[in-house]
Amino acid sequence: MSETLALNRTIRPSITSPVAFDVRLKPYECIRLDNRVPVYFLRADHYETIYLDIVFPAGEVYASHVLEAATTNALMKSGTSAHSAREINETIEFYGAYLDAYAESQVAGYGIYMLGKHLPALLPLLFEILTDPVFPEEEIHLYQQTKKQQLRINLKKSDVVADRLIDEVLFGKTHPYGRAAQESDYDSLHRDMLKSFHHQHYVLPAAKIFMAGKIEDGVLGLLNQYFGQSASQHAPATPTVPPPAPAATHQLKHTIDEQALQAAVRIARVLPGYEHEDFNLLSLLNVVLGGYFGSRLMSNIREEKGYTYGIHSLIYPNDAHYASWLVTAEVGRQVAEATAHEVYHEFRRLIAEPVPQEELLMVKNYLIGSLLGRLDGPVQQIKKWRSLILKNQSEQDYVRQIQTFKTATSDDLLDVAKRWLLPDEFYEVMVF
């Protein structure tokens, strides 16, 4: 009989600060299929499930039409030569699986969560979706009508319009990171466009495969059987992302409804991407500014002033060279200007005053604790590896980032704030 350890509930368990943890990733295994496609995987034999993600260089930056990448990706599962959209959906539902189609700025692909025992039944279907979509005309038409209706509804929402406008203001309306779809863009979609984009960018030898869970004998052989036999002579060329073309004016106000009681406020700037030496310190400074519930923006504008239920800041890394630093809030119309004033006030405080040690330690504990939470389990770990590998980064880059978070001083943050948090370099959008 196995012994159980008795708990003494009169003694408080020891508490370890997240900063003291040695944050490490579990090493992945990697094989190459017959056509040299890499498969990165983590075994977790105690799991009954498998997560499988097949990634292609088919993101938004590869598309000449604003909707080309997203629509191709979304409609690949809407029918193959052998199965209709309904049959595909019914098969996935029958096996209790979940299929996730995504198109990001750089990559696109399909992830699937399933019981390991159902892999032999579902892998052929996934292969069909990725290699043999037929893009039925009726499915394209249905997609166009549905998306246009969603767009009409969304363009009446101040937060959606503000998000679209701030991207356009930062990068320019024709830039891959600044363009936004109009109704006419949905009307101009057609089957040949989608087939051409799929043929050019969903090229199996250019794919990367990530997998975690119950990977038994035969799983890798099945992957090779379906995804390792195609040998294409072409691969999509990596596009050159143009520099941003920001708006001439730093302030933009847009009215949807003259009677609106709320306003969406966006204050943002372009930053260098994740390869820049300041990026990790900027990520830490962002948490101080508006990245958690106790942040400067929340303490001032929510708790003290009562202007909003929530105000947040985030850094979105578009690629190795460009990122966006964004402050976002929905506030009462009458306090929109006052909210912007207080945001800039918090910028100036971080430029002028070192972050107190107690606050900095709290932020470090929060940030590293959050990172630890995102590594809970094999699926989360392989997703982190995916992020690093797709950025051409290694575990050492991740370790350096964690070390920066742990060892950064108030003077380090003051220095980086003086370079990147200057109010005059931010753009402001208000939508009423």
Structure description:
By secondary structure, the protein is α+β, with helices and mostly antiparallel strands. It has two domains: 29-227, Cytochrome Bc1 Complex, Chain A, domain 1, CATH 3.30.830; 251-431, Cytochrome Bc1 Complex, Chain A, domain 1 (2-Layer Sandwich), CATH 3.30.830.10. 42% of the residues lie in helices and 18% in strands. The chain is built from 15 helices and eleven strands. The chain has a six-stranded mixed β-sheet with strand order 1-2-6-3-5-4, with helices on both faces. Strands 7-11-8-10-9 form a five-stranded mixed β-sheet, with helices on both faces. β4 (98-103) and β5 form a beta hairpin. The longest helix has 18 residues, at 137-154.
**Which CATH-level-2 architecture of the largest domain?**
2-Layer Sandwich
Kindly state the percentage of residues in helix.
Answer: 40-55%
Number of strands: 11
Structural class: alpha+beta
Question: What's the structural domain tally?
Answer: 2
CATH topology of the largest domain: Cytochrome Bc1 Complex, Chain A, domain 1
Q: Which homologous superfamily in CATH is the superfamily of the largest domain?
A: Metalloenzyme, LuxS/M16 peptidase-like
- First-last Cα distance: 68 Å
Order of helices and strands: EEEHHEEHHHHHEHEEHHEEHHHHHE
Instruction: Assess the beta-strand content as a share of residues.
Output: 15-25%
CATH class of the largest domain: Alpha Beta
Radius of gyration: 24 Å
* Helix segment tally: 15
Uncertain stretches: none
The average pLDDT value, as a whole number, equals 94
Strand order of the largest sheet: 1-2-6-3-5-4
